[in-house]
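Q: Got a minute? One more chain.
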Amino acid sequence: MSTDLEDAPPAEAARALGKRERTKKNNREAILDAAKIVFADLGYGATSVRDIIRRTGLASGTFYNYFKSKEEVFEALMDEGMRRIRPRLRAERIRSRTFEDFIRNAYRTYFDYLATDRDTFQVIRRNPNTVRVRMDSPEIIAGFEEIREYIEEDIRNGTLPNVDAEYLMAAVVGIAMEIGDRMLRRPEMDAEEASTFATALVLGGFRTLPHTGETK
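A: Always. Here it is, folded:
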């Protein structure tokens, strides 16, 4: 049995297909936009799929065409954030002459992103523990692997000693996440201060950390 789309003239079929794809894209974006607001307002634990659906105005069946659960929605939001930050990190990699330059520039880029991307800021600040345990989504794993590949490249080039690239990647990423979490909890976020601290810790150890005049 043929469908109406198959029987339609090519130009009309292309327009119908284009409209269908736009509708799918708009529906998915509507769900993610609603989820950002709900997760930020209620927190991950208190949020239900019904809360997200209610915020979109879509039918529940439409939601389940795109996501099976709130877990999938949250992971999609984390992936979306990583897709925004990875091109910036690649650009910093290209313009950095040494691994030390890359670390410095990458931390500054990451902390600036957290401080200025309001949607991501609200979700992460409201759900720091959930973010920590949901780090195995495809885009996030790919981002971590990209950093490991940078480290391995510098080891091959002789600009880094022959260290354990996986451990170093984990340390660099872990420091970024933990300091970023603490920065978001402060009344006044200072991305430059956070990047300076993280860079000094990675490159020189705790003895090189900048001194502060107060206990926070």
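A: The chain has a mean pLDDT of 83.
Q: Perfect, thanks.
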